[in-house]
Amino acid sequence: MQLLNQIKHHFFTREFLLFLVIGCINTFNCTLIAALLAFWIDNANLAFNSGYLLSLFIAYYLNSTIVFKEPLNYQRYLKFALSYVPNFLIQNIIVFIFYNQLHLLPLFSYLLAAVLGVPVTFLIVKIFAFSKK
User: Fold this and answer.
1) Highest mean pLDDT, choosing among 46-55, 58-67, 78-87, 123-132
2) How many of the other CB atoms lie within 10 Å of CB of 74?
3) pTM of the model
4) CA-to-CA distance for 126 and 67, rounded, in angstroms?
5) Whole-angstrom Cα distance, residue 62 to residue 81?
6) Is there a contact between 120 and 86 (Cβ–Cβ < 8 Å)?
7) Cα distance between the two ends of the chain
8) Among the four 49, 61, 77, 103, which has the fewest Cβ within 10 Å?
9) Given this model, what pLDDT does residue 107 score?
10) What is the domain partition of the chain in residue ranges?
11) Is-contact 87 32, C-beta < 8 A?
């Protein structure tokens, strides 16, 4: 029962809903940037990584101003970026498996990777980057 209450406390909130909306925007940004870079970079993984890193700036801005309502600052951005390391690893593994090993379309692999990393990322970002201590 306590686990259910913890899940409700974190995931059935306005904060999480806004995080999902921003996540959709960021997924679109990352996917678009990666797809565009794939025209010039003949390596889907490198294109994805580049798109991911570039979209991280937008994600930080949107999460700071809309979801967590915190002022922008360099230290929080670094924490935010570090919070995305597990997500980055999860997404890279998924792209590697579905694109490199199973030979599915890059776009499908990018989108699947984004969807599967969201819950873990939300908790880490909320607790580590935007906790109100």
Assistant:
1) 58-67
2) 7
3) 0.73
4) 10
5) 13
6) yes
7) 27
8) 103
9) 83
10) 2-129
11) no
